[in-house]
Amino acid sequence: MKQIICKVLFCLLSFNAFGTAQIPDILIYHGDTISLFSCPLDYYPDKELTSPKRLFGSTGCFFSACWRNYVATWTIEDNKLYLIKIRNACYPTDTKYVSASFQSGADSIGNEYADLELLFPDRFKNGKVAADWVNAKLISPKGKLLYYIHDGFESIYEKEIEFTFENGTLISTLELDNSKTKASKYTQDQKLLLEFIQNHIDYSNIPESKEKVRIIVSILNSNEEGKIDSVKILRGFNDIYDKEALRVVKSIPEWDLLYKHGKKFNVIWTVPVIFDKK
To answer: What are the domain boundaries of the chain?
Structure first.
């Protein structure tokens, strides 16, 4: 039987509008400075307030790692959430919590810091703003980075602290465990996945074809052991090729096991399988 080469390319379907990992806000809590994978200013009733023009007196800059154009610093004191600083993300920084920056002429990017007293005259007191508009659960990552996702605040850390606020008052904190997250070597190494697919096709199941055959397989779910247990054909060729493509993809011995906010979740992967007679 003539050799068939199966080439595999794959992509992770994103589930966030950012398309780029985002620089987090900063939270000071119990004397520690931690990252905040939430943006409390998003909940402010006046949506125009967070525009670069209102915050910094400019049109801002294009900065893919910080679409909102600012990095806010928050603190929790006596179970109350306060805003203490809004910094223009277009200025460089040397803090470990904000690891990237965009810099251009000061005239074009505006002021480095927003004037909190001017922006929040009714809430500003003693150098800070009472964030009484926040009725939300805010998330802070904790521990080691287990799984990097180049999108928004989607990367997975060992644990998360969930802060629940009502009218800016801290109601509860909850530590969420994501430690069972495990990245598959096959999602981390495209070459390894390609080799597995090539080496595990049962060529006797596939009739010879004079044309290139391309089948798109969707991996929908992996179980608690990290085994693929749900796949489907997104674009097929015929029953024989489709069946073999599904069998091989489902036989991958390990897949991503992901936890977020303490709960298992799945990310849909698409695997185009190309059978090309050589």
So the answer is: 4-14+182-277, 25-177
The amino acid that residue 241 corresponds to is Y
Q: How far apart are CA 270 and CA 23, in angstroms?
A: 28
**Virtual CA dihedral for 257, 262, 263, 266, nearest 10 degrees?**
-40
Query: How many alpha carbons fall within 13 Å on the CB side of residue 123?
Result: 19
Q: How many other CB atoms are found less than 10 A from the CB of residue 201?
A: 18
pLDDT by residue (tens digit) across 67-102? Answer: 999 999 999 999 999 999 999 988 876 544 444 444
CA distance 246 to 242: 6
The CA distances from residue 15 to 105, 182, 185, 227, 276, in Å, are: 34, 19, 22, 22, 32
Q: 246 Cβ partners below 8 Å, 6+ apart?
A: 217, 231, 232, 233
Does the pTM surpass 0.85? The reply is no
Q: What is the pLDDT of residues 135-167, one digit of tens each?
A: 999 999 999 999 998 889 999 999 999 999 999
3-state secondary structure at position 8: strand
DSSP tag of 132: T
